[in-house]
Specification:
Chain lengths: 295, 331, 325
């Protein structure tokens, strides 16, 4: 009987190890393809040239890089304040309110809502009435995707701040918003920053909500009331097209996009665990210290 | 004070380059984007053309979300009046049957309407089917399943292709019909001419219908199609021009024209013109589009021919210019 | 006297002003919380409902769901093929992803040496951060050719002639089909599921595991009889969460599904899902009823994923309550 149990143990644990290897295998294959192809086709021209007409080799993706930056930045600008505001309210004003507890749960559900549905909604609200595709609608769609994420992470980070801090501030006679502004937010700012970085990482990789809002543009366009190109939508068009040079450019764009998103995610983790703040503060302090010495 | 402001405004409007948005057919996308690039070099005006399929082009111009729509499926005068649209042709091209059979490389096959019809109905499933062998006695057709590729989006290329099938294959007309989007009995759907070309390139044994330049630029073979007179013709400028010779352009009918299955020994049977749609009630926007197309008509023929499209003959161009004037959208 | 009273007045007015600012801030923040937690989802449902009303009125909800015709020419739209496609691909993806995710979680929590734990954990989280379009692209340009040229013909050769299962491997293997799509989707879900399961496993109090070891149980027996039952709601919650995610996935699926509005009868058939139909046809729907039908699909997708995610939350909450008790 004992040998059977031992065997079962060995078998199941080996199976689990195999599963882990299976999972890591895919990750490595995908990253390998991305690295090899992305690197191969990465050229500096991609960043400062506009695209060529369909079928003519060469050109770049300047329009897509710039457009993507614009859409992501604007989406962040709109989404972050709203998300943080909601998060603060959930944590500081409505923590024990049953009604708002439901709203918070709904927000958490909206975090995983299909992004293409949001795109369809924004089309009905901001594209149809305006009469044309526009970058603003794209940025709004991205913001709407980002807001629940930021609200939830802000709420959770604020909840981590010990209650004693709040009580000490109140004991000094501060009003609620003063407590929040000067004490709580300051204590949780690292966590909130992490949430923002993760939110940005998430929307940078989005394609579906942009397909029918900011649409696409063959030129670099800074006018938000017109269609704006984005890396992801351009990648979609290029991969589904037949031209080899389009595929190559898509790989390079995918490489840059993934590296950017991974960088944001890793930075967020490092910031949260203090691994980035400590060396940064050390560097800053050593500068100020040497300045003092000179005097 | 007022004078200087006005002067500045005038200079300002001249200095600001025009931006024109258009969307629709992928059939003419290579030539439109080529013209756009040259137009930009010559005038500094930008034309942003997105290939989303003729169905999309029609939708977007009906919704007035673009300055011009592009469609290979011509709209009837009734449909145009219903949506307040104007229509005129730009170039003529060919829908070719392209395929990817690894064993045969770039061998050119003969196909006729019955063969294509049965393939797309799912009745002929393998390349070495006896009927195909009959049409190609000197080709060693392999025992390979046929992967049928069609369009997944609303397509004018589909319209032209299924129109030809409806004219030449009674079973197709009854079971499927023609239009920008049909209920395909079998096959995978690619997005746009680029998508179909892509799928054909990637599937071994694939067959698809695309505009000429897509097959050419991707080194895919094009079949000879049997025309009405029983001759197997290759798609090229001569055979498409032969089809175009039968066109009766009529500006009172908004240039509605179907060029499939035309008579003539040299005629390529699956040809079609491609059209631009404008909003009659938005003359400012439409004039932007006609500015671009006037330049294209006057300077763009050589680019069209380089990409194997047939430009409009000059009498038709003049007709188009008059049509614009009559409808208040001349540039 | 006057000095004292004017200081007092100043102090009072500061207090009153601060009180007003306090109220203002509360209202402002409260409005946004209300927007995010109630108005936003409400607006989504209302807009989707309004846009799909035409389709609902024309076809009727039941008829729409049972109609496998998607015919833009005849203006006859039925969502059955999309719904079936979404369900099949999600189900198969979950079938592959669930044992793998549990296996990975077991490996991370029980088997991995200390130095390897954070590396694999981080690797799994990085997989989750990769944008879904990358999965789709890679699936189309790298995986599909391998599937279509090598793997699927091999499968067809070995399994195609078996009595009932053989039907699943019939048809022309192109790599653009149900099998490849489910595979890509499963790879996408694995990081999410593995993270949730791993977190649930970590919640098990050490003392419970140690008492089992003390009784002479093997590692696997502890996992099977202590850890998994304890975290059952968490795992179930993670499963449902991943399902919710998979249902709404667009980019990973659009590249390799084949856009064929048919009900697939084999793993090698091309098909379509709700998200694929939306992505491909939204900008091209040239009639009102066409666009409205697409909106109806979007509404269905939103409602189904919302409900699933709500159920998942409930199950995970149950696990957390247990841990706190």
């Amino acid at each position: 009987m004992k040998t059977y149990r031992k065997f079962l143990n060995f078998f199941m644990l080996s199976l689990s190890t195999f599963m882990a290897i299976y999972g890591i295998f895919w990750l490595f294959w995908i990253l390998y393809s991305l690295l090899v192809n992305g690197f191969k086709y990465l050229k500096p021209e991609l960043i400062y040239l506009d695209p060529t007409p369909a079928g003519v080799e060469g050109g770049g993706l300047r329009h897509a890089f710039v457009g993507h930056l614009i859409l992501t930045s604007l989406g962040t600008l709109i989404g972050v304040p709203i998300g943080i505001a909601a998060g603060i309210f959930f944590s500081e004003y409505a923590r024990h309110n049953k009604l708002f507890a439901i709203f918070r749960q709904i927000t958490d559900i909206m975090v995983s809502t299909p992004s293409i549905v949001i795109g369809a909604v924004v089309y009905a609200l901001l594209v149809k009435p305006l009469g044309h595709f526009n970058g603003l609608a794209g940025a709004v769609a991205l913001a709407l995707l980002m807001i629940p994420v930021i609200a939830i992470t802000t709420d959770e980070m604020l909840k981590l701040v010990p209650q004693q801090m709040r009580e000490a501030a109140y004991a000094l006679g501060a009003h609620q918003w003063q407590v929040i502004k000067s004490v709580i937010l300051r204590a949780a700012k690292v966590g909130i920053l992490t949430g923002v970085l993760l939110g940005v990482a998430r929307i940078s990789g989005e394609t579906a909500p942009l397909l029918f809002t900011s649409f696409n543009n063959a030129y670099m366009n800074l006018n938000l009331m017109k269609p704006v190109a984005s890396l992801t939508v351009t990648m979609f068009d290029y991969v589904m097209g037949p031209y080899k040079y389009w595929h190559e450019q898509a790989w390079a764009a995918a490489f840059v996009l993934t590296m950017g998103v991974l960088l944001l995610s890793i930075t967020a983790k490092l910031v949260l665990h203090g691994n980035l703040i400590k060396p940064l503060t050390y560097i800053v302090r050593s500068f100020t210290r040497s300045k003092d010495k000179e005097e | 004070m007022k004078k200087t402001a006005l002067a500045l405004l005038a200079v300002g409007t001249v200095a600001i380059a025009m931006e024109i948005t258009g969307a629709g057919a992928t059939f003419p996308q290579p030539i439109y984007t080529r013209w756009a690039a040259e137009f930009y070099k010559a005038t500094g005006n930008k034309v942003n053309y997105q290939g989303i399929g003729s169905g999309g082009g029609i939708r977007q111009i009906i919704n007035r979300t673009v300055d011009f729509g592009a469609s290979d499926a011509p709209l009837t005068p009734e449909e145009l009046n219903k949506h307040g649209l104007l229509q005129f042709p730009t170039v003529i091209g060919a829908v070719v049957m392209t395929y990817n059979i690894p064993e045969l490389g770039k061998t050119v096959l003969n196909l006729d309407a019955k063969a294509v019809c049965d393939i797309y109905l799912g009745k002929i499933k393998k390349w070495n089917d006896p009927y195909l062998k009959q049409l190609n006695p000197n080709v060693n057709l392999p025992d390979r399943p046929i992967v049928v590729v069609h369009r997944s989006d609303g397509s004018g290329t589909t319209w032209i292709f299924t129109n030809w099938l409806s004219k030449t294959c009674p079973e197709w007309k009854e079971k499927v019909g023609f239009g920008t989007s049909v209920k395909w009995p079998t096959g995978v759907g690619g997005k746009g001419n680029p998508g179909v070309t892509n799928y054909v390139k990637r599937s071994q044994g694939g067959i698809g219908y695309v505009e000429y330049i897509y097959a050419k630029e991707n080194n895919l073979p094009m079949a000879r199609i049997k025309n009405r007179e029983g001759v197997f013709v290759e798609p090229n400028i001569k055979t498409v021009q032969a089809a175009a010779a039968y066109a009766k352009w009529d500006k009172s009918k908004h240039f509605y024209q179907v060029l499939t299955d035309q008579p003539g020994k040299d005629t390529y049977p699956i040809a079609g013109a491609t059209f631009i749609l404008l909003a009659k009630d938005q003359p400012e926007r439409s004039k932007k589009a006609t500015t671009f197309f006037k330049w294209a008509y006057q300077n763009g023929d050589k680019y069209a021919e380089a990409l194997h499209y047939i430009p409009m003959p000059s009498n038709v161009k003049n007709m188009i210019f008059e049509y614009w004037k009559e409808n208040g959208v001349a540039p | 006297m006057e000095v004292v009273s004017s200081v007092k007045d100043r102090a009072n007015s500061i207090k009153i002003r601060a009180g007003r600012v306090d109220k203002f801030v509360k209202v402002l923040l409260g409005f946004w919380a209300l927007f995010v937690g109630l108005l936003f989802p409400l607006i989504v449902v209302l807009v989707l409902f309004k846009e799909s009303k035409l389709a609902i009125d024309t076809f009727g909800l039941v008829k729409f769901l049972t109609n496998s015709n998607w015919d833009p020419v005849a203006e006859n739209f039925g969502g059955l093929t999309m719904v079936v496609g979404t369900l099949i691909s999600t189900f198969l993806a979950m079938l592959i992803a669930t044992p793998v995710s549990i296996g990975i979680a077991i490996f991370i929590t029980e088997l991995a040496p200390k130095w390897l734990k954070p590396i694999i954990s981080t690797a799994v989280e990085l997989l989750a951060a990769i944008p879904s379009i990358i999965y789709g692209m890679w699936g189309f340009l790298v995986l599909a050719p391998v599937m279509g040229d090598k793997v699927e013909p091999w499968l067809q050769d070995k399994l195609g002639n078996l009595p009932i299962i053989g039907q699943l491997f019939s048809g022309t293997p192109t790599g653009i089909d149900v099998l490849t799509t489910s595979l890509v989707l499963s790879i996408m879900i694995i990081p999410f599921m593995a993270a949730v399961v791993r977190d649930s496993f970590n919640m098990v109090p050490a003392i419970m595991k140690e008492s089992a070891y003390g009784l002479g149980a093997t590692q696997w027996e502890v996992i099977r009889h202590v850890v998994i039952p304890y975290t059952a709601s968490g795992i179930a919650g993670g499963l449902i969460l991943a399902t919710g995610r998979a249902l709404g996935e667009t980019m990973a699926v659009t590249f390799v599904a084949g856009n064929n509005p048919q009900i697939p009868k084999s793993l090698f058939d091309s098909f379509t899902t709700i998200t694929v139909a939306l992505a491909n046809q939204f900008t091209e729907a040239d009639t009102d009823i066409y666009l409205s039908s697409l909106y109806l699909l979007a509404l269905l997708l939103f409602l189904v994923s919302f409900i699933l995610l709500a159920i998942a939350k409930y199950m995970i909450l149950r696990l957390e309550k247990r841990w706190k008790a």
